[in-house]
Amino acid sequence: MAPITPGEGGTIKANTAEGAVFQTMQWWQLQESNETVNPLDQQFFTGTKDTDTNLFEGKWKLPVTITSEGLLTATPVYQGLNFAAGTGGTISASSAEEYTLKLMLWLINRQKDTNTSNPDKIINITGSVNLNDGTIEGEFKIPFSPTLLPNGGIQDLAREYLA
User: Is 0.90 topped by the overall pTM?
Assistant: First the structure.
């Protein structure tokens, strides 16, 4: 498992990086279906849950800029988002876009550590930067476990794949 500390008062509550991606990608899909937040019906985040394979797979894309110091920063996608990274968490950010970028880069970095974090060499998060059009985009594949709740509902929780 790739443990992280969720920010106090943050929107994302998962205490693993895999869980945070699972929640964050679904949060983005909810925002994109909101006509007030996304009146142009833009799709930067797509995802599908397959209940036969228990995989949540999709694509992610963020507009980015390069600062004069050479740092990659996420730029706003939508207006009026109700998101908080919280305080004191592993991922600190001032926007949902910045949080998502940092989270995905954190996981990609962790996947590259095949000595301790990823001895099975599983690559479930990918990303590439296109400096010409100012975007970073990639794919995600998060295994999940469904659980039947006492009230008859279903709860899906991300399964960890990193150490």
Answer: yes
